[in-house]
Amino acid sequence: MSKTRRIHDDLEYVGGIVRRSEGGSPFSIYLLWALMVLVGFSLVDFAPRRVGIFWLVGGPLGGAASAWLGYRHSRRIGQLSREEGFRHLWHWGGMMTAILLAVPLAHVSGAVDWSALSRVILLIIALSYFLAGVHLERPLRWIGALMMAGYAALFFMTSYGWTLVGILVATGLIVSGSLERHRGAPADR
Amino acid sequence: MAPRRTDSSRPPIREGLEGLDRLLEHRARLAICVLLSRNDAMSFRRLKELLEETDGSLGAHLMKLETEGYVTSRKEFRERKPVTWYALSRRGREALESHMGSLARLIRLSSGARG
């Protein structure tokens, strides 16, 4: 085998290992957001006045909990990367900022009503999940697409639409998280 | 008498080969350094799982890299079990960058030669 041929083979071998090292988030993060979505979306149908406070408090708290769960997972599997952590922080922090900036559309200027704003926020979240799937973690693409489908479905559902979309997205998150868990590495000892 | 070959007339592929880092010519050691360059630290067990090497073989590769100052290690205990973490040193990063540069040059040259 020529030297350059061997170099090509070695680089393919290294590339394969690097791809295998790119693991996803732990199941606990998927489960956390499945519960948040289930409760947060259902509130729109059952207690619409509590939706704002739920996400205002729960969103950042959930983000902090996700960061902690992600860090704990990284230590457990034995792979620490600050760069990866910061990529997630920028992505999800950007999404939360966009949502916060959208709130004055209804609260301050009154340009849109709360019902329309909720849908705009769902669309922001859907796009964020989809882009996270493209750039950070593959399965989230499907969750983003599911949310977009839910957004479209809300135009046709007159009652309990948000609850149904919440159930759909939460199920998607749990299924994706379970698949990731089976694909992922076992815990480090 | 054949003219003596000067440095400027040496075949570029040979020059590229000479630019390679001997320690990183082994693919397992190259993979270890590439993985460590993309992460702040990795445990022995994680490296073993990804490289699919035996304890002895991986330990020997890591020992060589550590002896040359390419990687650093630290031990900690988790649930009373030792965990060894490895990180790429500055020297290791520089060696890897130089080695990858030589590899890239070689690949360019060899594809140029074929084309």
Give the secondary structure arrangement, pairings included.
The complex is a heterodimer of chains A (189) and B (115).
Chain A: H1 3-21, H2 27-46, H3 51-77, E1 79-80, H4 82-102, H5 104-107, H6 114-135, H7 140-153, H8 161-183
Helix pairs in contact in A: 2-3, 2-8, 3-4, 4-6, 6-7, 7-8
Chain B: H1 12-18, H2 27-38, E1 41-43, H3 44-51, H4 55-67, E2 71-78, E3 81-88, H5 90-114
Antiparallel strand pairs in B: 1-3, 2-3
Helix pairs in contact in B: 1-5
Key phrases:
heterodimer, A: 189 residues, mainly alpha, 8 helices, elongated, B: 115 residues, alpha+beta, 3-stranded antiparallel sheet, 5 helices, 3 strands, 57% helix, disordered N terminus
If you had to describe this structure to a student in words, what would you say it looks like?
- Chain A has 8 helices and 1 strand; from the N terminus they run H-H-H-E-H-H-H-H-H.
- Chain A has 189 residues and is an all-alpha fold.
- In chain A, helix 2 (27-46) runs antiparallel to helix 8 (161-183) and helix 7 runs antiparallel to helix 8.
- Chain B is α+β, with helices and mostly antiparallel strands.
- Chain B is 57% helix and 17% strand.
- Chain B has 5 helices and 3 strands.
- A 3-stranded antiparallel beta sheet of chain B has the order 1-3-2.
- In chain B, strand 2 (71-78) and strand 3 form a beta hairpin.
- The chains are: A mainly alpha (189), B alpha+beta (115).
- The interface between A and B is medium-sized, with 25 and 27 residues.
- Strand 1 (79-80) of chain A pairs antiparallel with strand 1 of chain B.
